[in-house]
Amino acid sequence: QVQLVESGGGLVQPGGSLRLSCAASGFPFSAYGMSWYRQAPGKERELVASISSAGGITNYAESVKGRFTISRDNAKNTVYLQMHSLKPEDTAVYYCKRRGDYWGKGALVTVSS
């Protein structure tokens, strides 16, 4: 069955960096585009970034453009979200998603001094 497992979350100071990973299994990873979403306390879940199956096309929310980078390693069945210049408003649970409404359980990112 489809499994998506996020890792790499944690507490970081404003201006810091963090890299999230999402390990995928149970489906042909290289055939699917992947996305990262986030949900902040009291807010709706929002799309952060997406990447095409081969990695050549990426899209970002305006709020993270220039700070976050989505990438993937199809040999490792893993998608990444590199986050720089983190702000307190980036605090959220970050979810990995595959087309067809498959979600990981999320990784908490807290940006605070």
What low-confidence regions span 5 or more consecutive residues with pLDDT below 50? none
User: What pattern of helices and strands is seen along the backbone?
Assistant: EEEEEEEEEEE
The Cα radius of gyration reads 13 Å
Helix content: under 10%
Share of β-strand residues: over 45%
Strand tally, please? 11
Shape: globular
Key phrases:
113 residues; mainly beta; 7-stranded mixed beta sheet; 4-stranded antiparallel beta sheet; 50% strand
Characterise this structure:
By secondary structure, this protein is mainly beta. The protein contains no helices and eleven strands.
Give me a quick take on this structure.
With 113 residues, the protein is an all-beta fold. Helix content is 0%, strand content 50%.
Topology record:
Elements (H helix, E strand, L loop, with lengths): L2 E5 L2 E3 L5 E8 L8 E6 L6 E6 L6 E3 L7 E6 L4 E6 L8 E7 L3 E2 L3 E5 L2
Parallel strand pairs: 2-11
Antiparallel strand pairs: 1-3, 3-8, 4-5, 4-9, 5-6, 7-8, 9-10, 9-11
